[in-house]
Amino acid sequence: MHVKRLCFNMMDQNTYVVSDDSGECVIIDCGCSDDTEQKQLADYIERNNLQVKHLLCTHFHLDHTFGNKFALEKFNLQAEVNEGDRILAEMIHYQAVAFGLSDDQIDIPAPIYTLSDGAEISFGNTKLTVITTPGHSPGSVSLYSQQDGILFSGDTIFKGAFGAVNLPGGRLPKLYRSITQKIFTLPEETVIYPGHGESTLVGVEKETNPILFVDGVKKD
Questions:
Q1: Is residue 13 included in any domain, yes or no?
Q2: Which of 27, 86, 93, 184 has the most CB atoms around it within 10 Å of its CB?
Q3: Is residue 87 in a domain?
């Protein structure tokens, strides 16, 4: 598996292009928000002769979806998301207000709701398994390659941090369970590629992540 991280928009959001030796790839969380960022994404894909098969959203917050219209127009891909984030997709203009944007500054196409728990996303010789990890948003998912030992966690967990729960639909108890019961049960050598910041390892976060020490939440 080949993982290309591109950092986009005012939120320093991680967009990933994930490919294998077949030449097929997926885009995870397309956050490119202007012509320069769109060109950066397209140039990487074209320079490496990649065929894009899926546009996957770990969740439907605006900073992770700015580029969805571009991906639809450029690659004929409709964004795929979990059903739990339908309400976020339907209220995308309210999210724009939170970002200080007006309605005419965003145009995010409606997604399709295919990323159910346990679903397998196939491209080339690779399979990504959907793991529902709600808490940061109702429909947050992580995408796991058991074969390659890689997890794309969206904004559920970061290196030395965890996702905000003060946004609509955020819930700390759910986030705690998602991290401790789903992510921390993966092999410790699993590499985590988060929605913001640098990569980390499951084993490292099991020992040091502050989700374990949040007031009112008992450490296992």
A1: yes
A2: 27
A3: yes
Q: Is residue 219 part of a domain?
A: no
Can you tell me the distance from the alpha carbon of 48 to that of 164, in angstroms, rounded to the nearest whole number?
35
- For 69-102, what is each residue's pLDDT tens digit? 999 999 999 999 999 999 999 988 888 887 787 7
Q: Which CATH number characterizes residue 61's domain?
A: 3.60.15.10
The H or E element containing residue 127 is: strand 126-132
Judge whether residue 216 has pLDDT over 60.
Answer: no
SS3 call for 63: helix
Domain that holds residue 176: 2-213
Rounded mean pLDDT, 99-106: 74
Rounded to the nearest 10°, the torsion over CA 146, 49, 80, 144 is 10
Q: Is 3 helix (H, G, I), strand (E, B) or coil?
A: strand
CA distance 4 to 35: 19
Q: Are 156 and 130 in contact (CB under 8 A)?
A: no
Number of domains in the chain: 1
- Name residue 200's beta-bridge partners: 192
